[in-house]
Amino acid sequence: MSYPYQIKSLEQYKAAYNKSVVDPEGFWGDIAGNFFWRKRWDKVLEWNFKDPSVKWFLGGKMNITENCLDRHLGSLGNKPAIIWEPNDPEEHHRILTYRELHTKVIQFANVLKNNGVKKGDRVCIYMGMVPELAIAVLACARIGAIHSVIFGGFSAQSIADRIMDASADFVITCDGAYRGNKEIPLKNVIDDALIQCRFVKKVIVLTRTRTPVSMIKGRDVWWEDEIKKVETMGNPDCPAEEMDSEDPLFILYTSGSTGKPKGVVHSCAGYMVYTNYTFVNTFQYTPGDIHFCTADIGWITGHSYIVYGPLSAGATTLLFEGVPTWPDAGRFWEIVDKYRVNVLYTAPTAIRSLMGFGLGPVHGKQLDSLKVLGTVGEPINEEAWHWYDENIGKGRCPIVDTWWQTETGGVLISNMAGVTPSKPSFATLPMPGIQPVLVDEKGEEILGNDVSGNLCIRFPWPSIIRTTYGDHERCRTNYFATYENMYFTGDGCYRDAEGNYRITGRVDDVLNVSGHRIGTAEVENAINMHAGVVESAVVGYPHEIKGQGIYCFVIYQGTHGDENLSRQDITQTVSRLIGPIAKPDKIQFVSGLPKTRSGKIMRRILRKIAEGELDQLGDTSTLLDPGVVDEIRAGRL
Ligand code: PRX
């Protein structure tokens, strides 16, 4: 596999960037020409951000799995596609070559068909990090079914909400999942979710943990039994469904500033082209390299840089079932040495948490196979950047700080490893094709350098969000209505004197907790469901390891007097309704919330209190009851 579009020098980057702006259609058309198309596109791009309507490679026919699998069989058939490292280091790892992965995807695609799944159907996938998760994702894509992967840390209620929103008739899950010393009973969680989703026709259950599970006759089937059925039919092929470029490939739910998560929809061709392009360029992937992205496939990072980006590039992608701190905090480094990993892509929160264990777990590890390090998901503080650089990269490995979002499908702003300069805590420069703009509150563009503003993008790129599932208007109002003719990212940003971008964090009511996006309104809704809670307000505060922690101000008139017990109960409610990832870090009981005369909660003040900036509360004179601020300030946790 060669990548003629891989950029190798700063000059080439500048030339590519320039071409991508002057002639975007020519630029992306050339890159798309490197993929396998059943039918070439008629037109590269049609767009407006008003509706919004963005279409790439119009009239093209293709299937992403032919690009991720079939086209590699000739030259890479016996090369590893997926290396799987199990949770327990004592358990045997697995390696799937491209040929084996192809066979397994085809088998499972036939299982899906046998169970009634058709093109366009939505399939919810709730599994641990096992190779079958990637196989399930690819099998859906093979037959044109739209996958909606849900991260294992979400509760039954969250799953039910997502299954209902997408009207997913099919679910793929595991009996359970191993994560560190925990065993998570996934099928039981699904059963709880499905009490509300009677319309679900089939649940396919993979055996992983042998956790006892209930299997409902007519609805629930075992993955292994279904594979056997396919095998007894001989080894039938499963020709890839011919997809239109703009057919949806998947839905992935993410939090916004309103209560309900949105189903971000990505389409087939643009997503394929852009994730491949950014994979090859950001990480400077060289054939034969082992790429280890530590994210979960339940998030966009896993979709784009564990599954689709690497596989479409014929890369070897490492899939790790466990957690960085089990059996000890040297696990990542052990994996790097075990497989001689070349590219390590992880989150600042993981780096900070591992830093906390000191250098003991790093000692004795070679780490000499590493060539490139990457981070994603949240701003990386300089201390963590330098620790990563010195102790893991040994000063030899460029660090790529990749800024992007679920909605963007792939990396938008990042340095390219060893090709364009890095700068600690800066994502640096836009990828070719990406035109960032900083705007002020009024929507005026802020020109020049050494300036800050809200980050927007002025021109579409191939993997931009197409819609929010079932509610296009929501897509418009969330991303395309704040500033005219621009995609609004929701992030604040600083552009330095040289034009490097530094993402400073969300400017909306979205928290970033350990790299997980959580809407404050979602957490408030959950807290407000708790008996005795009158009202609540949730804000973020700086947290040493998580980046942001969840600080809740709660008016509570519950009956039992033990505050700590009440806190635990409220936490339990949040965990039940959203999932353990949204558990509050701090709950402060208050008698009132600072409100304007029109009844709006002044979050700015609460944020300052939570952040401990007690002398910077600003003007509180417009509050309905300024006295409440003193009380809250005095009771700060
Ligand atoms: O605030 C930005 C932050 O994560 C948000 C997107 O979250 P999500 O859709 O879950 O996707 C995460 C993985 C791509 C962004 O709006 N973010 C992501 N990457 C960075 C970042 N903040 C600073 N630096 C980054 N490299």
UniProtKB/TrEMBL annotation:
PROSITE patterns: AMP_BINDING (PS00455). GO terms for molecular function: ligase activity. It holds the Pfam family AMP-binding_C. It is an enzyme of class 6 (ligase). Keywords: Acetylation, ATP-binding, Ligase, Nucleotide-binding. Residues 13-68 form the Acetyl-coenzyme A synthetase N-terminal domain. Its EC number is 6.2.1.1. Residues 522-600 form the AMP-binding enzyme C-terminal domain. InterPro entries: Ac_CoA_lig, ACAS_N, AMP-bd_C, AMP-bd_C_sf, AMP-binding_CS, AMP-dep_synth/lig_dom, ANL_N_sf. Residues 75-460 form the AMP-dependent synthetase/ligase domain. It comes from the Bacteria. Belongs to the ATP-dependent AMP-binding enzyme family. NCBIfam families: Ac_CoA_lig_AcsA (TIGR02188), PRK00174.1 (NF001208). This is Acetate--CoA ligase. It comes from Flavihumibacter stibioxidans.
